């Protein structure tokens, strides 16, 4: 299990886990998001390569369109 803090809330996931898999788990695929891991922005092009570790703190922002 991997324990993560996402937007200030503790969550647990079966490991191993990368950012792309986390996005799927959170049902955010296809949405415009920005993700910060431990204070550093993770570029979308690196979501497949960035492995998450127990204790990581993430901030996820979902862009909402409208007018």
Structural write-up:
This protein is mainly β. The chain is built from one helix and five strands, in the order ββαβββ. The protein has one helix spanning 19-25; strands at 2-6, 9-13, 33-37, 40-42, 57-62. The chain has a five-stranded mixed β-sheet, with no helix packed on it.
Strand order of the largest sheet: 2-1-5-3-4
N-to-C series of helices and strands: EEHEEE
Number-wise, the strands total: 5
Percent strand: 35-45%
How big is the Rg?
12 Å
Give the uncertain stretches in residue-range form: none
Shape: globular
Please give the share of residues in helix.
Answer: 10-25%
Largest sheet: 5 strands, mixed
Supply the number of helical segments.
1
Average predicted local confidence, pLDDT: 94
End-to-end separation = 41 Å
Instruction: Give the class from helix and strand content and strand pairing.
Output: mainly beta
């Amino acid at each position: 299990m991997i324990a993560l803090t996402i937007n200030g809330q503790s969550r647990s996931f079966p490991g191993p886990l990368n950012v792309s898999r986390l996005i799927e788990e959170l049902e955010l695929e296809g949405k415009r998001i920005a993700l910060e891991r431990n204070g550093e922005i993770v570029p979308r092009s690196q979501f497949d390569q960035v492995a998450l570790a127990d204790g990581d703190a993430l901030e996820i922002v979902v862009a909402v369109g409208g007018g």
